[in-house]
Structure formats: C-alpha cells, structure tokens
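Minimal example, chain plus magnesium ion.
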Amino acid sequence: MSQVWMIASGKGGVGKSFITSAMAAALAKRQMQTVAVDADIGLRNLDLMLGMESKVIYDVVDVVQKDCKLRYALVQDPQLPFLSLLPAAQMHCASDLTAEDWAQVIRRLRKHFSYILIDAPAGVDQGMQNILSCADQTLLVTTADDIAMRDAERLISLIRKGDKPSPMLVVNRIRADMVRSGYMYSPQTVALNLDVPLLGYVPEDPEVLRAFSRHQSLMDARCPARDAVERIAKRFMGEYVTMPQPKVRRQLFGFSG
Ligand SMILES: Nc1ncnc2c1ncn2[C@@H]1O[C@H](COP(=O)(O)OP(=O)(O)OP(=O)(O)O)[C@@H](O)[C@H]1O
Ligand SMILES: [Mg+2]
C-alpha cells in the first residue's frame, strides 16, 4: 500500500525541500519505489536539489492540463532506479491547481509508488491545503526557534481541524553548542511544546549547502546531516533507531552542531 506524505512547514525556508529530497533518496536507496513531488508551483527547486534539473521537460501542470502523460513528466534519477521526481511548473502559481487536480495526480502516482513525498508550499494558505486534502500524513519541518514554532503551531491546528492524523516532527538545523548554552531549544523541547511526536532532528551542517551548490544529493556525502536523515528514514519505515543527543563537533575554527 502506498503512503502519501506532505512535507510542510508554517514558516518558509526551514528545510522542507532539503528534507524531501534527502528522505526520498534515503527511501529509494532502501529499494522503496519513491517519488518526490515538487508542489511549490512557481518556485521549483527539488530538481536542483536532486541534480535532475537538466532532465526536466514537463511538469505537474502539463500533466493536469493534459499536455503530456504522467509518465513523460516523471524524471528518473540517473543513479537511483527507485527514485523519481515529479517537477513543479516554473511559470505558474499554486492557485492554478485545485485540490481535485492534485487528488487525481496523487491517485495515479499511488499505482506506481510505495512512498509519495510531496514538498508543499510554505504557510497555511490554499496551495498547502490542497495538498493536505490528499495526503495521508504530514511530516512537519521546523527550526528550533519561537518564530518558526509559532507558525508550525498554526499549521498543526489546521491539520487537526481537517481530521488528519497528528503530524510527525523533524527539527532541522540544530546546533548543539547553542542548545547547550540555552540559546536554542532542544529537539525534544520543540516536540513537547508543539505536542507532536518527534521523528528526528538534523544538525546544522555546511555539507547541506555544499551539496546544493554542486546540485548533488546530500545522501552522496558523508556528514552528520546525512547520518541524521538516514536515521529518520529508518524510523519512517518503522525501524527502532535511538536518537543520539546533539553533538558539539570540535572543528579547526570553532564549533558546529
Ligand atoms: N541542516 C541544514 N544545515 C545547513 N543548512 C541547511 C540545513 N537545512 C537547510 N539548510 C539550508 O537552508 C536553506 C533553505 O532550505 P530549503 O530550501 O530546503 O527550505 P524550504 O523550507 O524548502 O524553503 P521554502 O519555504 O522557500 O520552500 C537552503 O539554502 C539550505 O542550504
Ligand atoms: Mg522549498
């Protein structure tokens, strides 16, 4: 049975696209048929994060408008046979697709994929709500600060009002040094405050930006953020994996999480 997950956040820029791309690659490496769907219409970027930008010809709006068949819009990862991408349109906006359009696309994807990970637009407006209506579950991404958490709270209340299961939480960009010195909430504190189950956390890691700059998947790098995503993917698939405390890493020029 396929699972449809919306990757969402209240505040923008907290790492939804990064988590979607890395989780999709991690699941595909475990031989799960996975599709990453870029639902951030008008602000396409999953193709770049997955290093597939040169292969994009059609997009989800072309599929909805019947300008091409779904199979021609799906981009196959050159290295991971179990990973595909359904790109967002660049020249449209979220309001160009209705909830029913999304429901039809997702219904067709369910026939071919075990995991459908949808990178939703930030915020709580109609674009996100259209995705919410056809997702089975939500993976909520936030950073550990009051601003992102307040926006996350708003999103959680909207999800609960919609009779959907409580979201699972990923706290991104954790800095162990700041958690220790009391300037940043721990992932557990964030989960407690938001009253949602913690699936995992990802440390702040310069490799994330390096991978993006090279248009490569983070999952090809060797770094703490990749290890954290691997653990999250295992939990996501139902494996029991312990959650290590954020580590302060000593570096030549100071500390990082
Ligand atoms: N764990 C991390 N460590 C370091 N940098 C990170 C981490 N996670 C995300 N970033 C950086 O944060 C930026 C925003 O990430 P991303 O584009 O995934 O956010 P987003 O939530 O999808 O944004 P938007 O709401 O605009 O779609 C990127 O430039 C990425 O390099
Ligand atoms: Mg994004």
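The longest helix spans residues 146-161. The chain is about 40% helix and 20% strand.
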